[in-house]
Amino acid sequence: MKNLIIYSIFYLIIASSCESILDVEPVDLIVEDNVFNSKEDIESGIIAAYGFASSENIIEISSLASDDVFRPSTNRGQGVQLNSWSYIASNTEAAEFWFNSYRTIAQANKVLYATDLLLKEGKLTQQEADYYNAEMYALRALMHFDLYRAMGQKYSETGLAVPYIDLEDNNGNNYPDGLETSLQPERIEIPLFFEKVLNDIDNALNASIPTQLNQQNITRFNYFAIKSLEARVSLYGKRYDRAINAANEVINNFNICSFNNYQSVWTDESNDGVLFKLERSNDDFQVGTIWTGNNLDIFFSPSYEITSLINPNSDIRYYTNFFTLENGNTIIGKYLGSNGVIFLNDIKIFRVSELYLIRAEANLKVINTNIDQANADLRALRSQRIVQYNHSYVSDPDLLMEEIIEERRKELAYEGHRFFDLKRNDLPINRSELDCGGAVPCNLESDDFRFNFPIPQEEVFANKNIQQNPGYGQN
């Protein structure tokens, strides 16, 4: 039985034989002197890393396990374990997410190592090396962070996150951990984990420069995408001042997607307000099929609760989050397809609107609470989503926090946030009576162990140092 890193390399080998993005020499498999020999090799390795990154996994996990979907009778077993909170260590979705994330991390480590070698050999300029390193540090941070959101325990000083695989030599064998095929890493405590994520983000920012975004560079990590990642990570890691400062820098440079352009963002016709996205081509997974089959069989429809929260007469998000078929059935509408391919869309990782919501929440949680700014951020977002919006000032911090969480639910629906927003705020999942019953459970208490997904059973068997999350057993 192989361990985590060997699984990652196995996936890399399989991917290299079937993905058109790797129709080059197999630079993604190992790091040797004869593998990455040029700038072109580094570019190919970076493209492979982005190709491996599968944020569809976290979108699926977050939406199906939350209160944003309803499971109709047309579901034939798709995602039932996630939706019913009956997932176990052998759950397929969790395992795919784990291994997809770590193979992306493995690829980023290979590129980082090779970039340093080529810089020393004079085959890259410092500017070129900085540019590549910024991308891979940021991608490595994002993949680790998403793993933490799903498999890591809720924030505490002693809780466990996930293994952080970088190029340090933590076991003292004079070889970078991230290149070892026999590595059996341990989970680390949450404060140290966030220190490592933010260190990667700092390295990425130090190697990057603030450049104006355009349609050519939002499919690769740029300076403002890295700042967006910093804001999101800092919010989860309770570094609220840092979250505010990072959000400020993005907001000061970019506008929220306008009301008129909002729908076209979700058909990939506009990038208004998009800071970073994973581009998808015809051979890639159709993200919309998480909820609806190509023959329009509905596996999961929008929950009755979320559809009731958004006013169809005034809020443009009703017509992006939901879509009504000719037969009257409502499906999830954010990923209906583009370029003639049904349900295939680019995956939006960071949008300006999220930064307003991050700043609003952080301003309520920071020591020097700023209720005025939180209200202003809600007003700024809603004014670009709701026709003739008239803001009602909320002075009670608790009520304002409820509004921010609800606004995140509306704005970021089906983008990989709802389940984790409830988890990090120590809130339960209470599905409405219209969305649950029978085989679909209604409530998940905030202290339930199932808010932490299990470490895959294959990893537990293979890695003697890994610790399973409570509630799933260690065997």
From TrEMBL:
Tagged with keyword Methyltransferase: no
Main location: membrane
Cellular component, GO, one term: cell outer membrane
Keyword Membrane on entry: yes
Residue ranges occupied by any SusD-like N-terminal domain in the UniProt entry: 22-235
Superkingdom of this protein's organism: Bacteria
Residue span(s) of domain RagB/SusD: 345-472
Position of the signal peptide: none
Coiled-coil zones: 357-384
InterPro entries: SusD-like_N, SusD_RagB_dom, TPR-like_helical_dom_sf
Keywords of this entry: Cell outer membrane, Coiled coil, Membrane, Signal
Localization per record: Cell outer membrane
Gene3D superfamilies named among the record's database cross-references: 1.25.40.390, 1.25.40.900, 2.20.20.130
Family: Belongs to the SusD family.
Stated name of the protein: RagB/SusD family nutrient uptake outer membrane protein
